Amino acid sequence: MEKILIIDDEAAICSSLTFALEDNFAVKSTTDPLQALVWVKEEKFDICLLDLKIGQYNGIEILMELKSIQKDLLVIIMTAYGTISSSVEAIKKGAYTYLTKPLNKEGLYSIIEQALKYQKLNRQVEYLSKELENKYGYEGIIGKSPLMKNVFNLIEKLKDVDTNVVVIGESGTGKELVARAIHYSGKRKTDPFVAVNCAAIPENLLESELFGYKKGAFSGAASDQIGKFQYANHGTIFLDEIGDMPMPLQAKLLRVLQQKQVIPLGSNDPIELNLRVIAATNKDLKKAVEEGVFRQDLYFRLNVVEMYLPPLREKPQDLPLLFQHFIQNYNAELNKDIRGLSEEAQECLLQYQYPGNIRELANIIEYAMLMAESSYIQVTNLPLEVQKKSSIATFSYNQNPIESLVGLSIDKVERLLIEATLSRNEGQRKKTAKILGISERGLRNKIAKYKLNE
Ligand SMILES: Nc1ncnc2c1ncn2[C@@H]1O[C@H](COP(=O)(O)OP(=O)(O)OP(=O)(O)O)[C@@H](O)[C@H]1O
Ligand SMILES: [Mg+2]
Fold it and tell me: Whose CA is closest to 63, among 55, 72, 75?
């Protein structure tokens, strides 16, 4: 039960407020502000109802004293008609809001409810920021799920040795981030980290990019050009999308790795290499080997240690931390001051599946922050795609879900229910019909009726 503290110099007000609130809250009241300060030092309250005019005391000073004892105490000022200006001053000094006397029960309850919701979000934000500070992560990689803890352990073990690593994971799971973390936390950190996207460079250029060339090696080679390998010497070369490397080049890469030297095109002088190789792929390399599109010998050479990065949907525990992480990042970048997500928006984002993983999540947060008009991101600020995938969250998030439907027609509710159930089941009609207790044919008709497949 949340705790409410009432401070008013009129005993009658103390007792009538206590009477109005005590069924739902743990209430303590006093006419003596000094007594109140003693209590606040002893126990933690959630909300304080404070009269600004309390006998010989200055209410603003009491307010400041209360806040200095307990920073997250929400103080609601009770003010008589005509003293609004002092209430405004109180808000500047940290009061949550003010109410004008005489108070009615509904008004009081709705303000308290709103204040508690606000406080809950604030406490959550505080908690998450602390967790982030406590380094729930490694070198900017955020995560506390067991899967990510394994990743951190592995990075720790690998950072100071030269073992070849292949990082495997779907798009946007942080493969490059992990490769950089290995490099920048290890002994080679003062030498270059050079990333090569094997899929993005045209096949005929990849060789010259990687190995470099001498002037005149081919038409267009107007001067000597250092290759990525040489450039990365003493540091780390990151071969991204290695699964897309053409077969002939795979043979050449293997030779470089075996001999630890590279010969630029058109040159006879090998360059000795001392570097670490980290490769990444979103493909199943073993399968590629079986299919004959990836060399087995190269596979064995690169894949001494395999590091698997789980897709986001396999580590939902990390979501709240990641939300907070990206909100902080984009606050700085976009010059915003977003505190967090509304409960509904958070729920919506927790339900979403993130086919594009963390990159997609980052984009969603950035978008929502651009759209947000208050200090908490609302469901309506999220991309439609995300809202649609978890439509249930957009209308049923009161304590009593049925209550929030009052005012809608039966048809509208039916439509919402079908839409939400379909989306929960990823569009599978058979499953959806079964849950709804109707035939598949019936479901099809309703989908057509409500135009849900448009
Ligand atoms: N655990 C994490 N904590 C914080 N940010 C992360 C995390 N994982 C990924 N990111 C961020 O998500 C984005 C995508 O990460 P990255 O580029 O490393 O993914 P990738 O696996 O290489 O993706 P692709 O296969 O599409 O190249 C980057 O902005 C990265 O900083
Ligand atoms: Mg990448």
Answer: 75
> In this structure, is the dihedral angle defined by the CA atoms of residues 297, 226, 159 and 281, taken in order, positive or negative?
negative
Query: Read out DSSP for 245-263?
Result: S-HHHHHHHHHHHHHTEE-
From the alpha carbon of 356, which atom of ligand 1 is closest?
Answer: 26
- Helices and strands: H and E segment counts in the chain: 20, 20
Whose atoms come closest to the Cα of 175: which ligand?
1
**All structural domains of the chain:** 3-123 (3.40.50.2300), 138-310 (3.40.50.300), 312-383 (1.10.8.60)
pLDDT tens across the length of the chain (454 residues): 899 999 998 999 999 999 999 999 999 999 999 999 999 999 999 999 999 888 788 888 999 999 999 988 999 998 876 667 778 888 888 899 888 888 888 889 999 999 998 888 888 787 777 666 555 667 789 998 888 889 999 999 999 999 999 999 999 999 999 999 999 989 998 889 999 999 888 878 888 999 999 988 888 888 888 999 999 999 999 999 999 999 988 999 999 999 999 999 999 999 999 999 999 999 999 999 999 999 999 999 999 899 999 999 999 999 999 999 999 999 989 999 999 999 889 999 999 999 999 999 999 999 999 999 989 999 999 998 898 776 444 443 434 566 667 667 788 889 888 988 888 888 899 999 998 999 999 999 999 998 887 6
Q: Are 66 and 93 in contact (CB under 8 A)?
A: no
Ligand 1 pocket, mutate which of 154, 165, 167, 177 (most atoms under 8 A from CB): 177
Tokens of 271: 């360059």
**Do the beta carbons of residue 39 and residue 5 sit within 8 Å?**
yes
Q: How far is the CA of 115 from the centre of ligand 1 (A)?
A: 37
In contact, 389 and 353? CB cutoff 8 Å: yes
Amino acid at 90: A
